[in-house]
Amino acid sequence: MPLIKFIVVAGARPNFMKVASIMEAFSRQHAASDGFTCSLVHTGQHYGRSMSDDFFTELRMPQPDINLAVGSGSHAEQTARVMIAFEKECLAQRPDWVVVVGDVNSTLACSVTAKKLGIRVAHVEAGLRSRDMSMPEEINRLCTDAISDLLFTTDRQAGDNLRDEGIAAEKIEFVGNTMIDTLLRNLDRALATSLPEGLSENEYAVVTLHRPSNVDSPEQLGPILRTLQQISLRIPVVFPVHPRTRQQIESFGLRASVVEGIRLIPPLSYLPFIGLVARARMVLTDSGGIQEETTVLGVPCLTMRDNTERPITCSVGTNRLVGTDPARILQSAELALSLGSTKPQIPEKWDGQAGQRIVARLLDGHTFPG
Ligand code: UD1
User: Fold this and answer.
1) What's the 257 CA to ligand 1 centre distance in angstroms?
2) Considering the domain 4-176+353-362 in this protein, what is its CATH number?
3) What's the pLDDT at 1?
4) Strand segments (E) across the chain
């Protein structure tokens, strides 16, 4: 009986917690059967301690078998570098399946590369749609889903989106949310981390901001920072700054004039970040994954975007889309502060078992010796 070979791909910060759950499910399955192999390829899209290495240690993930070390660059440069390096890896390993997660450039690059080599592709977190083609992630999602052989979704609407695009129903499986698997598994450890000095539970707001549409021009970034500064007069604001945003704050000369009053700290690794968010009074963000994490944690989340690919976080969860207009952000922040936290309502199947469902389906139909 030939071994089935899987390659699981991780590229950027929001991939690591999703992959952690899948790798754990593979390793549990391995205890029962040795009919498959699974290697972890890190593309190196994100790198260094705070953006990559600490996640592997904290989440007790196996170290990547291969690191393609592609680093940063324009979208075309980065995507192309991943494709060139990943093709060599696929030719050397000859996997049966490549498993990609999320919507970053590495997701797109590895799925296209694998598919053109005749390797089957499974996409975890398929079917999310913001309908906003100015988001690079939306392009990555659409292209990856169009060519995937198995599409694992986090909610029912994602499945509807895929069927509307003509994807065959038998390729789609609603499994739940691997990012939430990892959150549930690590919440106690996250809550055991200490808060940055001077912050008290439920008495601060957390900010994250890194989307190109919000941070790549001074006309956008300046007013957002000034709005956050106004909020900081009301409640302490702590802002772990993504490297891209830090670069832009410096290059637009916004540091001295606008960020006084907001507490800028370096990017945090997984456990301190989840610990910070879980004990916050409110979160203001433009991230995708944080909308889901705050939903499960029951922390009010104001998303500084006009759309979301994760509408379930608004319909079921604690998320509100507030755009980037200063008056609207301020008004919504005021409302969130006065209402306080709400009882979390957990979306269907966000129960910590998504990784296991994924691996069960990937191995389904294969019989193994022993
Ligand atoms: C990427 C993802 C985005 C995700 C985000 C989370 C794409 C298209 N975007 O955006 O979906 O929400 O990650 O963080 O894949 N940099 C570092 N160290 C790093 C990585 C980046 O200093 O480890 C700096 C580099 O100067 C780089 C810039 O940050 O040019 C942006 O990084 P990049 O990976 O291009 O995109 P993100 O904005 O991180």
Assistant:
1) 25
2) 3.40.50.2000
3) 63
4) 4-10, 36-42, 66-67, 97-101, 120-124, 150-153, 172-174, 205-208, 237-240, 262-265, 282-285, 301-303, 319-321
